[in-house]
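Thread: Newbie trying to understand structure tokens

Hi all, I'm a second-year student working on a class project, and my supervisor (Dr. K.) asked me to get a predicted structure for one chain before our next meeting. I've only ever worked with sequences, so writing a 3D structure as a token string is new to me. If someone could post the tokens and maybe explain what I'm looking at, I'd be very grateful. Here's the chain:
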Amino acid sequence: MRFQNAAFLSFTLLTLIFTSCNSPKKEAATLLIYGGPIYTVDTLQATVEAVATKDNKILFAGSLEDAQHYKNDQTQVIDLKGKTMTPGLIEGHGHFMGLGYNELNLDLINTTSYQEILDAVASAVEKAEPGEWITGRGWHQSKWTDMPSDTVNGFQTHYRLSEVSPENPVYLSHARQI
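---
Reply by user tm_fold:
Sure, no problem. This is what the structure looks like when written as tokens:
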């Protein structure tokens, strides 16, 4: 009886040890990237050897050896061949300071008349303190469906603009025609 209890306990103990050491099945990645510096923007692990993702969500970031556990026959594998990978930067060519400053200005790129510009300025004036500059960019007269009646060499005069913005100076830069 004593031997049977010891054998049962030994078997139970070995089963527990074996199952606890056996790692659970990991999710399969749809994409595995490796082969160049991969920046994580994580202060604890600033760079890694590999990243495994599933449906555009990161499953794992770390060593290539550990990332291989997420790979199966359907996993797309990308070798960076020494190129750098950074998170979240998709812009191919942008002037970030300019893009940021543009958010502070009136966007006049899609205006189709001088009246639309006047309306945009009038709306900005309602939110501005007297004396505060109203700035905008992107208008082009070639996009307008009609021209203002008072122009000089094809360009509008300031009179109607000054009417909607008597207490605020206005600077609206022109767009280059492409």
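A couple of things are worth pointing out once you decode it. The helical segments are 2-21, 64-67, 96-103, 114-127, 159-164. Residues 94 and 100 are 10 Å apart (CA to CA). Feel free to ask follow-ups in this thread.
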